């Protein structure tokens, strides 16, 4: 039977997570014992390698993860003790309680390793085991994200290519010679359409015909009346874009009329 890759990665990660939990338990017990015994010199190296939030993260699936308030209180007391500040009397009893809970957590091997090295090897082992445990999951997530990004990029490229093809099809120019009328500013003037596409047209105009760039006009070509906007203008010519693309069945008769003429 073949397992899905993500499920296989999760199964591979489980043993390493258990090791990471035990390493965190050992570090927590070492801090609690040092606070209980009132040994600030032993706390300094432990606090450089561990903090309450990282241990709670490692213990989130462990029963000790439910002791979040006590763990934060322990590290607050440990920081004060290591800095030489006074510590409340109940800090020792709270530390002793956490030490007993950690001792009974069933992680004797990791606890012995952490005690023998002062927590340094335990912290390094925890980091190595945590990376080893979660690396396959992160790798699988990265693979899924990469596939999603690749698919999105491919879709965007396809869409852009399709839009470019449609734009080219709509903007294909046809040389014509069609009489027209242009209405602008309450005036009407004759014009000659020199080229035509579904998106716009080039017109020849008399010099006194009103209209500047951005002027809204109406172009009448045969029976078609098209709302348009002047995009450029000089003494004799103007380029307009239609407010709505010219329908294919409206363009065909105009081209046929040009061919017949």
TrEMBL record:
Leader sequence segment: 1-20
Magnesium found in the keyword field: no
InterPro entries for this protein: PilZ_domain (IPR009875)
SUPFAM superfamilies to which the protein is assigned, alphabetical: PilZ domain-like
UniProt keyword Transmembrane present: yes
Residue stretches spanning the membrane: 139-159
Domain PilZ span(s) in chain numbering: 168-250
MF GO annotations: cyclic-di-GMP binding
Matches recorded under Pfam families: PilZ
Domain of life: Bacteria
Keywords: Membrane, Signal, Transmembrane, Transmembrane helix
Protein name: PilZ domain-containing protein
Organism: Limimaricola pyoseonensis
């Amino acid at each position: 039977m073949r397992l899905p890759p993500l499920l296989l990665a999760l199964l591979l990660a489980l043993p390493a997570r258990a090791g990471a939990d035990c390493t965190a338990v050992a570090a927590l017990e070492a801090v609690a014992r040092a606070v209980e015994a009132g040994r600030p010199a032993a706390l300094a190296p432990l606090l450089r390698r561990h903090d309450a939030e990282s241990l709670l993260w490692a213990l989130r699936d462990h029963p000790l993860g439910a002791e979040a308030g006590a763990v934060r209180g322990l590290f607050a007391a440990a920081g004060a003790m290591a800095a030489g500040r006074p510590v409340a009397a109940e800090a020792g009893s709270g530390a002793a309680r956490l030490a007993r809970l950690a001792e009974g957590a069933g992680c004797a091997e990791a606890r012995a390793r952490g005690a023998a090295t002062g927590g340094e090897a335990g912290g390094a082992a925890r980091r190595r085991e945590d990376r080893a445990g979660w690396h396959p999951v992160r790798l699988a997530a990265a693979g899924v994200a990469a596939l999603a990004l690749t698919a999105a990029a491919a879709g965007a490229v396809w869409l852009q290519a399709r839009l470019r093809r449609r734009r080219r099809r709509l903007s294909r120019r046809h040389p014509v010679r069609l009489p027209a009328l242009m209405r602008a500013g309450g005036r009407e003037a004759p014009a000659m359409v020199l080229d035509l596409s579904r998106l716009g047209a080039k017109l020849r105009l008399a010099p006194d015909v009103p209209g500047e760039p951005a002027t809204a006009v109406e172009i009448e070509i045969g029976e078609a009346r098209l709302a348009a906007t002047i995009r450029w203008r000089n003494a004799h010519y103007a380029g307009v874009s239609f407010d709505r693309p010219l329908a294919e069945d409206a363009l065909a008769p105009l081209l046929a009329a040009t061919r017949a003429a």
